[in-house]
Design a protein that fits this description.
heterodimer; A: 316 residues; mainly alpha; flat; B: mainly alpha; 12 helices
């Protein structure tokens, strides 16, 4: 276990180095000029040039990369060139919003996926299995903005039961208005339920039929115990990998849901930063997104390794 | 139940392919966002165009963009996958895979957004990038599918007969790896449909006056209360298209297994 953990963590560090380069590389990709964007259209060429040198945009790329890295090591992501607010505190604020949305979704998703996956896996190829499968695949297929708009049209506009937008609410304020979260969470659930339930279904079905489960039943162990203590843990490795991907999707892939419901999260923040050519912010967002992905994949791999049977542990 | 996917798929695909032939004029002649009334069975959109005509006209873009991205992903991913599966270039192939994994680490929409901000905001770029984002997955699938036949005695015999590299790989190995590849193509259609529609919804591809369903939904979103048809009709068609495509593929996969 420790040997695997050490090697896998080493790989994660390598990936982090690549992420740092990629995050900074975004600057080169955005030809824009933050200076031109701040100064506005009426600025003279001289004013823009002065601003460029004040922002350090006229220095060569490697030197800027080095300075950015040294500041990063001191925990300083720089200030937003548009608002002047430190990028770190803006990111923390936005992260809270996205994390609350993700946590609320996971709280509903886990029991739902467990129920769907286990009942499909235990009743493979029955009508129940086929019906649940059709529903989850269908929900997964609808683009988020389509599902979201249809829900808004029905539940907010026509029925008037639920608010259609979370505009003006920062992270913690969301907790005071749980009704705001209902529709976004539903949309995210539709997107994420299918794959998690499917992994559970395959694992449960394979292990419930397997020799271990059959032997335990012959020994007279109750069906509930067989399921909870033997079938489910054995089905875990691919499920945990998929769960890492789910959390990743909930933290980094909610741009559409956030902009549809006007939420104050990482997705909408990134859109704004890119639109404003706010390079320090864009770099901060890319760092957070890519860093989250590296960390979650690391955790997913380590947990999956811990749960897999000793004989099948590969070094992947 | 069995035919559900196909039936759902039929409606938007027929609309998309044949719609432009029967669509009326999409000139903006009427008042914007009018509810259904004289001469406009589904009302007008925010530009004062007939919703029925625009919807009939707007299904083609999403179909050809998806097809284009899929073709591009495979045109690049198929040879690349076969190449990484070849014994002779093992080291190089491994490096290629590691590099491609970095691409996989970035959420697709975020990459599209940065490109759009960099001034690359046209349908052709969108199709190319969407295809390119599929490259790591496609390469891996093709590689995995080609590895097994690569070690068969037939391949050795073909080598001994002195056949050129491409004849063996594309002619024999490529052909025997076709099953998993077709399966992946099916799933990828669903992924690409969602990605491209979402990108158009965010305004990253097609122009704002395009009749494309996703663009229509985004543009008419504000008038949801007064003119719901301009959002509802394209939204339902797009939903049917995505659900139908995914269910059909899912059913076909179930039969294969």
């Amino acid at each position: 276990m420790w040997r695997y953990a050490a090697v896998r963590t080493g790989v994660a560090f390598g990936q982090t180095a690549l992420v740092l380069v990629a995050a900074f590389g975004m600057t080169a990709l955005l030809p824009g000029d933050a200076a031109a964007s701040i100064a506005g259209e009426s600025a003279t060429r001289g004013q823009v040039a002065a601003l460029r040198s004040r922002l350090g945009l006229d220095q060569p790329l490697p030197q800027r990369f080095w300075e950015w890295l040294t500041r990063l090591c001191h925990g300083d992501l720089g200030d937003s060139v548009i608002t002047g607010v430190p990028v770190g505190s803006e990111l923390g604020d936005r992260f809270a919003g996205s994390a609350i949305l993700a946590a609320a979704t996971i709280a509903v998703l886990l029991p739902l996926a467990l129920a769907t996956g286990v009942s499909c896996g235990l009743h493979e190829h029955t009508r129940l299995d086929r019906t649940l499968n059709t529903i989850t695949v269908g929900l997964h297929a609808v683009p988020e903005f389509v599902l979201g708009l249809l829900l808004i049209a029905v539940f907010s506009v026509a029925a008037g039961w639920l608010p259609a937008t979370a505009a003006g609410m920062s992270g913690p304020a969301l907790l005071g208005h749980p009704a705001v979260l209902v529709l976004p969470v539903t949309v995210l659930l539709g997107r994420q339920l299918c794959e998690l339930a499917r992994q559970l279904r395959v694992g449960v079905a394979a292990n419930a039929r397997g020799p271990v489960a059959r032997h335990l039943r012959l020994l007279g162990v109750g069906e509930g115990t067989v399921l909870a203590r033997h079938v489910l843990p054995a089905a875990m490795p691919p499920v945990l990998q998929q769960f890492a991907r789910t959390v990743e999707g909930l933290l980094c892939g909610t741009v559409i849901v956030e902009s549809l419901f006007a939420m104050h999260g990482l997705g909408t923040g990134f859109v704004e930063a890119v639109r404003n050519r706010d390079i320090p912010s864009v770099q901060g967002y890319v760092l957070v997104f890519a860093g989250t992905i590296v960390v979650l994949n690391l955790l997913g791999d380590l947990l999956a390794y811990r749960f897999s049977p000793r004989g099948e542990r590969g070094f992947a | 139940m069995r035919l559900l996917g196909g039936l759902l798929l039929l409606i938007p695909v027929v609309t998309g392919l044949l719609g432009p032939l029967v669509a009326g004029s999409t000139a903006s002649t009427a008042a914007p966002s009018m509810p259904p009334g004289d001469g406009h069975p589904l009302g007008t959109d925010q530009l004062g165009r007939d919703v029925l005509a625009v919807v009939l006209d707007g299904g083609t873009t999403v179909l050809w963009m998806t097809a284009g991205a899929l073709v591009f992903a495979y045109a690049a991913g198929f040879p690349l996958g076969l190449f990484t599966a070849t014994q002779r270039f093992r080291r190089l192939g491994g490096t290629v895979l590691r590099l491609l994994d970095v691409v996989l680490a970035f959420p697709g929409l975020l990459v599209l957004m940065v490109l759009a901000a960099a001034g690359r905001r046209d349908p052709a770029t969108l199709v190319l990038v969407a295809g390119m984002l599929q490259l790591p997955a496609v390469t891996r699938i093709v590689r995995a599918a080609a590895l097994a036949p690569n070690h068969r005695a037939v391949v050795e015999a073909l080598h001994l007969q002195g056949l050129p590299w491409w004849r063996i790989h594309i002619g024999y190995i490529g052909r025997s790896a076709l099953g998993p590849i077709l399966t992946d193509m099916g799933t990828r259609v669903g992924i690409l449909l969602t990605l491209l529609a979402s990108a158009n919804f965010l305004g990253l591809g097609l122009p704002a006056d395009s009749p494309d369903w996703a663009v229509l939904i985004e543009r008419n979103n504000q008038a949801l209360l007064t003119q719901p048809f301009a959002v509802f009709v394209p939204a339902v068609l797009l939903a049917l298209l995505c659900i139908g495509a995914n269910l059909s593929v899912d059913r076909a996969l179930g039969r294969l297994r």
